[in-house]
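User: Structure tokens for this complex, please. No commentary.
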Amino acid sequence: MKRVLREPLLHFLLLGTTIFVAYSLVTKPSNDEPGKIVISQGQVAAMAEGFARTWRRPPTGEEIEGLIKDRVQEEVYCREAMALGLDKDDTVIRRRLRQKIEFVTDDVTALAGPTDDQLGAYLKTHADAFRVQRQFTFSQVYLNPERHGENLARDIAQLLAQLQQAGDKADLSELGDSFLLEHKFQSLPAGEIVKQFGEKFAIELGKLSPGQWNGPIESGYGVHLVWISERTEGRVPELAEVRDAVRREWANARRLEAKDKFYQELLKRYVVTIERPKPAEEKRIAATK
Amino acid sequence: MILTKHLLAAALVCALALTTNGAQAEDTTTDVGTLDQETAAKMFPAKPPYSPYAGRNFPTRPFFGDTHLHTSFSMDAGAFGCRLGPKDAYRFAKGAEVTASSGQPVKLSRPLDFLVVSDHSDGFGFFPQLMSGDPGLLATPQGRKWYDWIQAGKGGQAALDIITSFGKGQMPKGFPLPGTPAYRSAWQETIKAADEANEPGRFTAFIGYEWTSNAGGNNLHRNIIFRDNGAKASLIEPYTTQPPLGSPNPRDLWKWMVMCEEKTSAQILAIAHNGNLSNGRMFPIIESFTNKKIDRAYAESRMRWEPLYEATQIKGDGETHPLLSPNDEFANFERWDKGNLDLTELKKPEMLEFEYARSALKNGLKMEAELGVNPYKFGMVGSTDAHTALSAVEEDNFMGKTTSSEPSADRTSHPFVKTSLATIMGWEQTASGYAAVWAQEDTRESIFDAMKRRETYATTGPRMAVRFFGGFDFDAADANNRMPAKIGYSKGVPMGGDLTDAPKGKAPTFLVAALKDPIGANLDRYQIVKGWLDAKGETHEQVYDVAWSGDRKPDAKGKIPSVGDTVDIANATWTNTIGAPELIAVWKDPDFDPSLRSFYYGRVIEIPTPRWTAYDAKYFGVKMPKEVPMTTTERAYTSPIWYTPAK
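Assistant:
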């Protein structure tokens, strides 16, 4: 197996130190030499490729010259800045480097495609996250308390009686107060009920019996009389129904886990000494908190 | 509680006596003559079908989301310490609890319905794709070893070994090295995260990015949103602002957008934001790049690609400014008017006109009269522009602009931007906003199409439902209709629409309705903001109160008195004992002149509630300086409806 980076070593073994030095002078990328900048063919090709990906056409001669000129400028500035040590202790650069190394662990976990057994096990231990929500098919009539004031209780009773008489044939288009949300909902999942009516309403709805007019139950908007025609209980789905979601969550859990393990492994290479502030100072900091 | 404390007794009997006449009414509306109108009329035959769901293809509830969120993929977000990427951002928006970059657990009160992760295209960068999944790699002993480790759950160990080998130059053959195409771009990762998170019908994850033109520190930023999936979006790399590859001039962005749609058939749109930090350049009459007057080509392009404007976000509210709207008592809201984005140039009063949404809508009428095209015919959305991967702008759950302004005892007292010219303090951040979209369903296609037709509104955080319909035939009884939306669509056009050619003797009428956030504060009032161009070519504006809670009466100047204030600042609480959960009314323009161009948009104001600074003060036990506002009045701005005279 030929490894480009090992070639200098090979030359060293064969021809000795002198030749190795000569060789490394020749093969070393010229950009390592101070005072010399070479924009390689490969780099030019990469710039052209980048342009083509943005504009869906190859750059013109003028455009590629512009890109090259810009790259030279970047190289000059970077070298000068590094020579001045401007890259040292730069938070932005340090954070970027940290980010890049963290990407490595992301890659590693991305490679490992999970088996169905692994996904099944994950689904079992995280059942709640994938649960198919309880669903309600229901009708509701709304009363705006502001409009009824102290007559609210009486009006509710009256309306309820009227609805109970009409049963599921009640014509809701003319009952109750005008309301921006729908009067009838088909198979609405509990989470969607929370979004539209708030949690209090969703909980109360769960306690009602289907097939009759119930209420009043309260929401953030006011009060509602409700007829539930169908209620489907929540359940833990089969893997086949939610495989994509389980795979996504599984991969995410793996990603976080790998990141942590990776850091712990790296940390083992270091002896970390933290020079904490003296106790007196510590106390003062604590006091100001 | 709310059930017992109310005064107004519109007796139920009375309400029942009012019959809905929507079915008859729609037969009389042939004179409006807009496309939406005609379609709507076909949708609703005289006798509605037995099934209440049949023929109902208008949007029945708004979807709430954020069109503008940065993650660690943005250079500046990463530099501020953000360590959560697009995947984390989508998980959080879908309701998962995550650990913020500052180490604290955070979760939304309710999931959002959609999200655009819009990282800066400049400096997107490439990341080493060490495990590119090349089958040749697995055939090497090292590759095989790593693969087995990973399968056995020893990912950390594998990663370490890979890094070590990399450092020693002992990588197996076929391993991608820096500078090779096997380096993946952050853009590809962004696309992948969105496609994975997208769940049609349940949660929409849009592919997008931000084109961050910042010429001279003046904010001309735009977010680009794709309607399509990764198969199309990955055909192209995002447009940048650095010449020679990119450009800071919006005209060049529009050229790129034309090319993008032509060559990839992907549909895209752009949303600009933070005119308040553009120092007079966001809505120009004179173009800053050429110093020439805006021409028809500019107006046409801007109209084609920019149907919406992000009118409120963490870096201040952009509806209007007290100097522009001196008679608007609610205009002084979350102002950021010290200078440009990086505070290298101070604000001058004459810049304001070209920065705020309302004045731009007014100037748009003027330019339309001259050019034949209105470059500033935009709808409204709000979004966060958070750089934390956390779209969290509720006052009691505000995660700040950057990782360094995630909740902490001193986030309010630290300067947010500080130059020799001016300082913006941490407490000046605005916990705002979200985009609300009236779409038929929670999918990329449906939400994108609603954005294109401007059926959207901005909120400063609360998820209130706001309707705004315009037509010539709404009457008072329509406000008592049990199904305001049905009557709204059948007799008029929704927000974002057009009215033209007023029938003789008729003035525009509006059916307005707002429903509070189910877990939020009551509503104070619903206002209509009108702007128009007079016969001399001068623009004007007027704010009308059209619906309000309780039995308040207009004063001598026609203004509705204040709703009051129940905020207990020390405890960061309020009560819904004032205001109303829902406001509905029909309003007719009393000052209409059919020969003048005009626009109308809705503004809904909540009762006062504690500002995020009050929650901070209480939680961290800090005393805020006197100048820090501790209450706020959250609000919503609808997209306008425009009236254009015939010919």
